[in-house]
Amino acid sequence: MNILAIETSCDDTGIAILKKNKNVKVLANFLSSQDNIHKEYGGIHPSIAKREHAKNIFPLFLMALKKAKLLKKGKTKVKKETYKILERYPELSNDLITFLETHEKPNISKIAVATHPGLEPCLYVGINFAKALALNWNIKVAGVNHIKAHILVNFLNKKEIKFPALALILSGGNTKMLLMESIKEYKELGSTRDDAIGECLDKTARLLGLPYPGGPEIEKRAQKTKKSEFKLPRPMLNSKDYDFSFSGLKTAVLYTIKDKHLTQKQINELSFEIQNAIIETVLKKTEKALLEFNPRSILIGGGVTSNKKLQKALSKLAKEYNVKLHIPKYKTDNAVMIGV
Fold first, then answer.
1. 3-state secondary structure of 59
2. pLDDT per residue as tens digits for the range 286-340
3. With a threshold of 0.90, does the pTM exceed it?
4. Residue 30 belongs to domain with CATH number
5. 182 and 258 fall within a common domain
6. If DSSP codes are grouped into helix, strand and coil, which group holds residue 233?
7. According to a count of CB atoms within 10 Å of the terminal CB, is the N or C end of the chain lower?
């Protein structure tokens, strides 16, 4: 069975094709980033992100079919409802209708598309594209939870993941800790009460004059020093729950740099301290969960989990508690995880 997967929940357009037999094989995987477009805003502008998704999704779709060797010349009768589904995206509509009129249905059995959570205008580009294809190919569409996809991509061709498992989703839009009793049983232990962890990194990076996206920039700067003259709070570090809060950290940075002309050394040291504050908070909450729930595995996902220092710290903690840490190949937003 071949699955076409679509991801447009935020600012990355993703298309993947997966083949499922005994194992799952990725036949094609393409991603278009909008980082350079959103840099001037210091964050994601939803209407611009929507426009770029509508522009990028068809070329990626075509590239994926070519890569998977599933393109078949011929003709598919275009159903009238297609025009209505794609009426808000005239260029995409024209491209898809031309494609359908010149190609047969490829060997695709099902379409998987991210439906929530995310930026609504962005999600609907992918959802409507999926609906139009499914209508004309006469196949089903599966709506996929973006957060669960980040978790489940850890299971890609793995059999050794043991339950219960603790799952950490750390991204630009989400910060959540979940307990899994099985692959289908989830219990949310905690989440952010305000800014997501990646959002905090973007905002503090902007305060320091660093470009978007902030996470990789702060990580680069933090690597240039081994100490900091600055001391920032660790929000909710000792709270009795598993919730997070990062708006206070952002505010602390704002007041720390107020009326100061920062040197490059100070920017490096503040980056070092911001990164440490975030990692220490995540570690403390994770250790608390390890003690209370005694999980056998830790699963991670989301763009912030690409941070090498965070990975190293979580790996050390997992070893101390004799728990297996799983770091997926596909950590940032992508369509492979939607297909999985």
1. helix
2. 999 999 999 999 999 999 999 999 999 999 999 999 999 999 999 999 999 999 9
3. yes
4. 3.30.420.40
5. yes
6. coil
7. N
